[in-house]
Amino acid sequence: MIQIYQIQPAIFCEPCKDCGARPVLKLEKKKYTVMCPNNHYSTKPGLVDVNDWNMKNKIHNQLSNLKSVQKAS
Ligand SMILES: [Zn+2]
Q1: Regarding predicted confidence, which is higher, 48 or 61?
Q2: What whole-number distance in Å separates Cα of residue 37 and Cα of residue 53?
Q3: Is the pTM for the entire model greater than 0.85?
Q4: Whole domain around residue 56: which residue ranges?
Q5: How much distance in Å is there from the Cα of 34 to the middle of ligand 1?
Q6: pLDDT band at 69 (very low <50, low <70, confident <90, very high)
C-alpha cells in the first residue's frame, strides 16, 4: 500500500528542476521517498531525505554558477 503525503510548508524543498512542482512524500513498505508528483526525480527509499532531493534539484543552478566562475577568471 502506497501513501502520499504533502511535505509540511515549514520544510524547505527545492521545486522539481523539470516541472517546478513541490515534491511529495511517498510511504511504501515503511520506507519514505521524496519524489516529484509528476514522477521526475525521487530519492532512494528509506529515511526522509529532503537534503538529497534539494541537492539533485539544484544541479542546474550549480552548473550555471560554475560557468560564470570560469568566465570571470
Ligand atoms: Zn517534476
Answers
A1: 48
A2: 13
A3: no
A4: 2-72
A5: 12
A6: low
User: How many CA atoms lie less than 13 Å away from 72 in the CB half-sphere?
Assistant: 6
Number of domains in the chain: 1
Quick check: 4 pLDDT over 70?
Answer: yes
Radius of gyration over every alpha carbon of the chain, rounded to an integer in angstroms = 14
Question: How far, rounded to the nearest angstrom, does the alpha carbon of residue 57 sit from its chain's CA centroid?
Answer: 5
- Ligand 1 centroid to 73 CA: how many Å? 34
The dihedral formed by the CA atoms of 46, 34, 18 and 21, expressed in degrees to the nearest 10: 170
Contacts of residue 25, defined as CB under 8 A and 6 or more positions apart, other chains included, come to 4, 5, 6, 7, 32, 33, 34, 35, 48
Mean pLDDT of all residues in 53-62: 79
| CA 5 – ligand 1 centroid, Å | 16
Q: And the C-alpha cell for 43?
A: 530519492
